[in-house]
Amino acid sequence: MSRVAVVTGGTRGIGEAISLALKEMGHAVAAIYAGNEGKAQAFSDRTGIATFKWDVGNHQACLDGCAAVNEVLGPVDIVVNNAGITRDGVLSKMSFDDWNEVLRINLGGCFNMAKAAFGGMRNRGWGRIVNIGSVNGQSGQYGQVNYAAAKSGIHGFTKALAQEGAKYGVTVNAIAPGYIDTDMVAAVPLPVLEKIVARIPVGRLGQAQEIARGVAFLCSDDAGFVTGSTMSINGGQHMY
Ligand code: CAA
By alpha-carbon position, which residue is closest to atom 13 of ligand 1? Predict the structure, then answer.
């Protein structure tokens, strides 16, 4: 059955792969982006997937944005909260803005999008919310108190909302990716990244499609009994 899916951060990196996987499942996809117009346009031209621009850290923008998706594609059945940023730095060098912006977007975005879509899913008796956490939210990471706190928060948020959605057919799950071959990971200084990869038992970075396949499963009808879970896809880096 064709559904309407919203993927935040859906035009690049892991989000792009997720948007494509959900489209391949036959869903109408809205890929949300915050700023990179050029990449969003190129993505839309290449894939035929509709793009919408808003800041997921802005509560009202999420309410208005999901209403706009509703008008164009129909009621939102699937939300993938993938949008995220890093502002890495050790605590002594991290500004309050670096802390706040990561919490506002990475964790606040999940709340804002759930507020916009959860009620409709519950009323219609079917919904899927997949939140993209991180191995670093499970294990912590040097230089990432903001990101690790936000991602760890996502895992708690997932388990709490799963309990609210279960009896209405709305599942809420998380995926905790490890280090995936994306622009975000490419920004990690090479000597640091080499040390991290050396600690991944599979011996390589992950591919965005390897995360997207997990998301596709969690969004399927087959996954109706899976809720409140965290799927770790990290090459064995952290066995949780
Ligand atoms: N554990 C212990 N000590 C560490 C360490 C670690 N993991 N990493 C660095 N250090 C030490 C260094 O050895 C160094 O010590 P000395 O001064 O005694 O030599 C000290 O900490 C300072 O290290 P840097 O020179 O790296 O410090 P910096 O201020 O220039 O940079 C940093 C700090 C920005 C955090 C940098 O180390 C960094 O970018 N680290 C990578 C963080 C990371 O993994 N980010 C992931 C981004 S991708 C992502 O988040 C996606 C996902 O979900 C997985």
Answer: 192
Determine which one of 147, 168, 179, 240 is catalytic.
147
Q: What would the pLDDT profile of 145-204 be if each residue is shown by its tens digit?
A: 999 999 999 999 999 999 999 999 999 999 999 999 999 999 999 999 999 999 999 999
Residue 142: active-site member: no
Q: Tokens representing 180?
A: 């995936």
Give the tokens for residue 110.
Answer: 């999940």
Domain residue ranges of the chain, discontinuous segments joined by +? 4-233
Question: pLDDT tens across 30-63, in order?
Answer: 999 999 899 999 999 999 999 999 999 999 999 9
Task: Name the CATH superfamily, with its identifier, for domain 4-233.
Answer: NAD(P)-binding Rossmann-like Domain (3.40.50.720)
Report the predicted TM-score, pTM, of the whole model to 2 decimal places: 0.96
Q: Which atom of ligand 1 is nearest to the CA of 188?
A: 39
Contact in structure between 204 and 197 (CB atoms under 8 Å) = yes
Distance (Å) from CA 222 to ligand 1 centroid: 40
Sign of CA dihedral 163, 235, 152, 69: negative
Strand (E) or helix (H) holding 170: strand 170-177
Which residue among 93, 142, 230 is best mutated to probe the pocket of ligand 1, counting the most ligand atoms within 8 A of its Cβ? 142
